[in-house]
Amino acid sequence: xxxxxxxxxxxxxxxxxxxxxxxxxxxxxxxxxxxxxxxxxxxxxxxxxxxxxxxxxxxxxxxxxxxxxxxxxxxxxxxxxxxxxxxxxxxxxxxxxxxxxxxxxxxxxxxxxxxxxxxxxxxxxxxxxxxxxxxxxxxxxxxxxxxxxxxxxxxxxxxxxxxxxxxxxxxxxxxxxxxxxxxxxxxxxxxxxxxxxxxxxxxxxxxx
Length: 208
Prior knowledge:
Cytochrome Bc1 Complex, Chain D, domain 2, 2 domains
C-alpha cells in the first residue's frame, strides 16, 4: 500500500501485534468469502494462522488471558481451511476480532490536533502520494481518502499496516510507529469528504 518506508521499525505496543494479526486474518478471510479468493490468498491465510498461534501465546503471557479458547478457534479455522470452508474460517476469525479488537483508543482522538494533522500530511505526501494519488483505472494502488471515508479508524489502520507489510509473509516489527499510523489515520479521515467531493463527485452523489 505505502510506496516507501519511513523511519526505523517500531513494534506495536500493548499486545497490538496479536490483535492486528486477528484483524488482518478476518479481513483476508472475508475477502475470500466475498469472491476475491485465490490459491495465493489461501496459502497466505494458512501461513498466518500458524503465526497467529505463536502471537496468541505471547499475548496471553503478557495479558494473562486464557490461551486455550483462542487456540481452539485457530485450530477450527485451520481445519476449515483445509476442508475448503472459507466461510467457517471467516466466522472463527471474526469471533476472535470481536473478542480482541484492534483499536486505536487514545491514539486517534475525536478531534485531531493541528500538529497531528501536519504530521499525517507530511507522511502521506512523502510515503503514500507517489502511488496512491495517481488517478486512472490502471493504477492498482487504492485511493486512501476514499477508504478513509468508508471505514472506521481501526479498520483504516489495519489497511495501512497490511499495505506497509507488502505481501505480509510476516514481520515482527512494523516500519511505522503507532503515532505515525495514528497521524495518517487522522489526516486521511479529516480530509476524506473534501477529497471525495473533489476527485470522485459521482461517489459523493451516490452517497447523498
